[in-house]
């Protein structure tokens, strides 16, 4: 890895943002409404926790081709329905300007990674990113270009030799895992609702990476109905020990907030408070193992008013170095903006009223509990590959 001084020379946290990022728009009936990002940025600004804002560049063709095939990029540029490439489906309908909008999101995540790699920011975020389902040769699950994989690839090209990726979206981070399946330099960890119940139907404990990279893919398949305490139990039983063993130089995370109980597309039961607790834990791990180097990306989240802006504003507060108390009221001006923009009633507080706790794995586990069986299966599959006792 190139010489870096870590936190001693880094500037404050940054968010890569431009209103044109909201041009990634599959249409009014699609659940992935770009207004969720606009509401997030406005809420963070109104609460005074918005990090330094950096303009979002458009990823170049050369950059896109570090992950995606040329023929697939050509198909996106043409902008016509093409089932072979996953374009024109219910999940990924084509829209005008699709290539440019998708490439700008990719460019924003690459820029966030560059800011941290260059020491220009200790933490950097792109809330419009996290499009973790896109495959090298086709669109999938609302995702055209895989900005996460592109950002990680750019970090590898910068000379990083150990990159940890933690994905807390309710859906398995299959596209990122696929790209780095055989690469021992990248540790991908995904905590998600089990593929037995939810798209994309993958991501089980036995999926541990390809030849020469065994143990570099980690999957925790959570039972439907898992709430704050169970989710945090799983996270702390798996993620900190693996990062301790792997010793990453930089941490990249995907923060889909569709694990919330109010999300219409999945079946986990987290609160905003539980999600915030996961962000705090990831932030702490970045400082423990990576001298603070942290690239935080968005992801899923389809409770557009009630969940996404609050969850991601807590994330941006951590990126900026702010301590935003869960009990903080939402600003009256922001609530009025939500009413005007969305015709909806906004939450009055940054909390759902919970104080998340969890039972430590070291206190014992119960083989009769579905969640504990899933955690144990992951630990037994992966921990020995890192020299850890399951």
From TrEMBL:
Example of a GO biological process term: epigenetic regulation of gene expression
Keywords: Acetoin catabolism
UniProt GO molecular function: histone deacetylase activity
Pfam families reported in the protein's UniProt record: Hist_deacetyl (PF00850)
Pathway annotation from the record: Ketone degradation; acetoin degradation
Domain Histone deacetylase: 30-317
InterPro entries in UniProt: AcuC (IPR003085), HDACs (IPR000286), His_deacetylse_dom (IPR023801), His_deacetylse_dom_sf (IPR037138), Ureohydrolase_dom_sf (IPR023696)
PANTHER family: HISTONE DEACETYLASE HDAC1, HISTONE DEACETYLASE HDAC1-RELATED
Similarity comment text for this entry: Belongs to the histone deacetylase family.
Name this polypeptide is given: Acetoin utilization protein AcuC
Originating species: Nocardioides baekrokdamisoli
């Amino acid at each position: 890895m190139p010489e870096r001084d870590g936190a001693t020379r880094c500037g404050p946290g940054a968010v890569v943002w431009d209103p044109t990022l909201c041009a990634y728009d599959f249409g009014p009936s699609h659940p992935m409404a770009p207004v969720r990002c606009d509401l997030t940025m406005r809420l963070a600004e109104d609460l005074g926790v918005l990090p330094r804002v950096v303009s979002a560049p458009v990823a170049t063709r050369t950059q896109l081709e570090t992950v995606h095939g040329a023929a697939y990029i050509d198909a996106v540029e043409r902008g016509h329905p093409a089932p072979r490439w996953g374009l024109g489906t219910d999940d990924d309908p084509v829209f005008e300007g699709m290539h440019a909008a998708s490439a700008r999101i990719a460019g924003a995540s690459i820029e966030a990674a560059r800011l941290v790699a260059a020491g220009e920011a200790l933490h950097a975020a792109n809330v419009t990113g996290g499009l973790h389902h896109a495959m090298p040769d086709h669109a999938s699950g609302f995702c055209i270009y895989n900005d996460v994989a592109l950002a990680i690839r750019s970090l590898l090209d910068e000379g990083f030799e150990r990159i940890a990726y933690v994905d807390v979206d309710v859906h398995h981070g299959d596209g990122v895992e696929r790209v780095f399946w055989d690469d021992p330099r990248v540790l991908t960890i995904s905590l998600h609702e089990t593929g037995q119940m939810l798209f994309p139907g993958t991501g089980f404990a036995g999926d541990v990476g390809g030849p020469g990279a065994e143990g570099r893919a980690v999957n925790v398949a959570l039972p439907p109905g898992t709430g704050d305490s169970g989710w945090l139990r799983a996270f702390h039983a798996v993620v900190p020990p693996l990062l301790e063993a792997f010793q990453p130089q930089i941490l990249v995370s995907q923060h889909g907030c569709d694990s919330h109980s109010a999300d219409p597309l999945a079946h986990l039961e987290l609160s905003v408070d539980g999600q915030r607790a996961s962000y705090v834990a990831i932030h702490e791990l970045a400082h423990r193992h990576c001298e603070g180097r942290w690239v935080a990306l968005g992801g899923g989240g389809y409770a557009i008013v009630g969940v996404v802006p609050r969850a991601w504003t807590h994330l941006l507060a951590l990126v900026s170095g702010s301590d935003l108390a869960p009990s903080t009221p939402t600003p009256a001006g922001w609530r009025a903006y939500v009413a005007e923009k969305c015709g909806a009633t906004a939450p009055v507080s940054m909390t759902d009223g919970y104080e998340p706790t969890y039972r430590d794995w070291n206190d014992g586990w119960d083989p009769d509990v579905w969640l504990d069986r899933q955690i144990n299966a992951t630990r037994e599959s992966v921990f020995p590959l890192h020299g850890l006792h399951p």
